[in-house]
Structure formats: structure tokens, C-alpha cells
Design a protein that fits this description.
- The protein is an alpha/beta fold.
- It is 50% helix and 14% strand.
- It contains ten helices and six strands; from the N terminus they run βαβαβαβαβαβααααα.
- The chain has helices at residues 10-22, 34-44, 62-73, 88-95, 113-124, 132-139, 152-162, 167-174, 178-191, 202-210, and strands at residues 2-6, 26-31, 48-52, 79-83, 102-106, 128-130.
- A six-stranded parallel sheet has the order 2-1-3-4-5-6, with helices on both faces.
- Helix 7 crosses helix 9 (178-191) and helix 8 packs across helix 9.
- The two termini are 30 Å apart.
Length: 213
């Protein structure tokens, strides 16, 4: 897997390069600013982009804005954003750009190497990886129908889907069988009016409705 990494902290950038190498991911470019990110993507056509939100010169939202530009130019390009804090507005903008291949994690998650690598692979494969803190803060904006149709257990299942968990991971977290998880998910799809025609995107569409995006 060919990865482009954008992170202005030299220590974190070099640490991530080495971490990704141990996971058989080849960092074809490691840059320190948003302009470098855009140039690197044009030059290398990567399989995955990992970028910080705040980068030079203003250290506000340059990385996120570059990610949004890339999603407009290359809708199928998987992008995972790393942030020190939950930037609700920016997370909403990024998650609204497409139905897959997107992630938003807090930098603290990098400490759990296995979980972080799993999130990278999930995003690269067209899935989602949302930090639980991101999910929690976006949910504070409130819900309305059809989400109110869901039972408490269905909410729990959908929240875990929003974190990017597989059916197996959800079953382990809730201590239930995978068949029970499958039934809950089918109920969620039905209650959110997501038909079978939506196929593989139904999980992502359900998450977007859950987050009110």
C-alpha cells in the first residue's frame, strides 16, 4: 500500500513513517504542510492519505482544507485525518464528502498500534474509521426521526458501526453473537429506510444519518 503522510511535527512524522513500514505500508512521501500534500498526491497517486488537521502556516485548518480539496478532485481517494482535538465543523465537512474511504481519529489513537493500523487498512479498503470521541461530540447535536425509531441496543450497534467496527468486533464489544448483530443491523437499515439497492454503502449511509450529516 502506497501512503502519503502530512504532519508538521518532525518527531511524529518520522515515527509514523517507521510505524507504517512495520505494517507493510510504503510511505512514498512525508510532507510538513498542505501545499506539499497536494503536490505529493499529484505526483505519486497514492492508495491512502494520512494528514494532520492543523499545519503551517497558520496551524488552524490547512490540512483539513487540503483533504477536502483532494476529495473533490479524487472522490475515491481514501483519506484519514488525524487531529489533536475534535474539530466538529471540520469533521462534518469531511464526512459529508463521500460514502466511504474516510477516517477521523484523534492522535492519541496512534498509541494503540494495532488499532491504528486496522483503521488505516479499513479506510484504504473504502470503509470508515471514526474516533469514539468524534462520534460522541457529533451526537450531542441531537437526533430526530427516523433515528428515534431505533431501540437502545440498535443505537449501541450503530454507534459501534460509526467507529468502524466489523460485525465480529461489535459482537465482541456487546458480548452477543454475530447473528444477533446481523439482525440488529438489518433492523437499523429497515428503520432508516436504507433499501437493499444501496448494497455495501448502507453501513456508511447509516452512519452519516446517525451523525446527522
Amino acid at each position: 500500500m502506497r501512503v502519503i503522510l502530512a504532519e508538521d511535527s518532525v518527531l511524529l512524522r518520522e515515527g509514523l513513517v517507521r510505524l507504517l513500514a512495520t505494517a507493510d505500508m510504503h510511505v512514498v512521501a512525508a510532507v510538513a504542510d498542505a501545499e506539499g500534500l497536494l503536490r505529493a498526491v499529484e505526483e505519486h497517486d497514492p492508495d491512502l492519505v494520512v494528514t494532520d488537521v492543523r499545519m503551517p502556516p497558520s496551524h488552524t485548518d490547512e490540512g483539513l482544507r487540503a483533504a477536502l480539496v483532494l476529495r473533490r478532485q479524487r472522490p475515491r481517494l481514501p483519506i484519514l485525518v488525524l487531529s489533536q482535538y475534535v474539530e466538529e465543523r471540520y469533521a462534518t465537512q469531511l464526512l459529508s464528502t463521500a460514502t466511504g474511504g474516510v477516517g477521523y481519529l484523534l492522535k492519541d489513537r496512534v498509541a494503540d498500534v494495532a488499532e491504528f493500523v486496522d483503521a488505516l487498512r479499513r479506510v484504504a479498503d473504502g470503509g470508515t474509521a471514526l474516533d469514539p470521541e468524534v462520534v460522541a461530540q457529533l451526537l450531542l447535536r441531537g437526533r430526530s426521526d427516523p433515528l428515534d425509531r431505533l431501540t437502545r441496543r440498535e443505537y449501541e450497534v450503530l454507534a459501534l458501526i460509526a467507529e468502524g467496527r466489523s460485525n465480529t468486533g461489535i459482537a465482541e464489544a456487546l458480548v452477543v453473537s454475530e447473528s444477533a448483530v446481523g439482525k440488529h443491523i438489518n433492523n437499523i437499515f429497515a428503520k432508516l429506510d436504507l433499501s437493499g439497492a444501496d448494497k455495501d454503502h448502507r453501513r456508511v449511509l447509516a452512519v452519516l444519518r446517525f451523525l446527522k450529516i
